[in-house]
Predict the structure.
Amino acid sequence: MNRPRAFVIGAGIGGLTAAAALHRRGWAVTVAERAPALEPVGAGIALAPNAQRALDVIGLGDAVRAMSAWQGEGGLRAPSGRRLSRTTQEAAAERFGGPVVVAHRAELVALLAARLPEGAVRTGTPAELVDPGAAGAPATVRTADGQEHTADLVVAADGVRSAARRALFPDHPAPRYAGFTAWRFVVPAPERPFSPHETWGRGSLWGTVPLRDGRVYAYATAVVPAGERAPDDERAELLRRFGDWHHPVPDLLTAVDPAAVLRSDVYRTTAALPAHHLGRTALLGDAAHAMTPNLGQGGCQAVEDAVVLAHHAAPDPESTPSALAAYTRDRLPRTMAVARRSERVGRLTTLTSPPALALRTAAVAVLDRIGPRLVLRGLDGIADWRPPEPYAAGTQETETEADRRQRRRRHREAP
Ligand SMILES: Cc1cc2nc3c(=O)[nH]c(=O)nc-3n(C[C@H](O)[C@H](O)[C@H](O)COP(=O)(O)OP(=O)(O)OC[C@H]3O[C@@H](n4cnc5c(N)ncnc54)[C@H](O)[C@@H]3O)c2cc1C
């Protein structure tokens, strides 16, 4: 029997994971990426245990777990440095079956790309969805060289500004500006071991987390009008906004090359799509559900999407339309719930009025005293996700130590 064919538009984290997961299920995959090379932004990405378990499905979970660099205590702080809430990786592992790992995006992309056969990824290749396909009719994609490609399944993983989404659901509202911009950069750690922190100020936040190669990933957000850019350079802008925050923020800003500071306005999906598929075309990752970065889940949800899609995609191409209906059923409610929760946390970090800020600080302190650490509580019901069953029993790699710990915890908590 001929292998079923999938065409993936976009080689971001979502597209590459989907291609790897489909390849593992016996599909022939082609990935078209419009960028000239797989050179992801110089930034980190938090991968919570839900994403690590999804990556187990394609044999990468342990490679990602091995990137964990967080040591000691981390948590939430005020700009003065005062601790508002504390947490440790052990607490995260105890709660969710594993630590939250922060990887360099380049490392993650390299791992994903290495899971694909030679020549599967075509860079410098913009692609356009021509026909989403239907039961009994393949989908068609046209690449910029004018070539038309038919496929049993098209995965549109073309990001927040997805042209495929507009083609499938032209009347659906476009993602909207979330009200804040984000800066990111990577620099050598000012000290080792380095304790991570996230610090909430007035309408702004700063976070710094260690990477395993001795560098740290720093990120910041601030409430500003969409499209605004620094009159000089973005490092100078960060110094104006965060230069008097607690150690190590000023030192990191002194160390970074202004050209290495990335800035992107944050956009989010405001309304659920009618479905995450049409005909034989699936929308995946930010193309389907762009969310604010406050929970560090946009990429994690893209990775979940990818393995659930591959799980439903049977080797018989004729069943693709019904497989995609199952994909929408599984993914649409979950991703929108995660997006809404992320937005709620985002609202807390963008408060600017002094009474609201005082209330927030008091509430964080109280919540931290009475229950599980605030930082972890935000991921309840999210970070404990597991891939669909046949994977867990079959193609998934062997159970990890983190899984064993979580299974024991569940066993202890069972009524
Ligand atoms: C500041 C910030 C911090 C974040 N931090 C985290 C975090 O810690 N953890 C986390 O899980 N998530 C995080 N996210 C979210 C995460 O980055 C995204 O959710 C994730 O990258 C989405 O992956 P994707 O593959 O869906 O889309 P993208 O990464 O946007 O990839 C889409 C790809 O499609 C390509 N493309 C577009 N159109 C075409 C076309 N016509 N033809 C061919 N190729 C095309 C693009 O070039 C791109 O490579 C963060 C986001 C921001 C803004």
Remarks:
- The two ends are 49 Å apart (CA to CA).
- The mean pLDDT is 90.
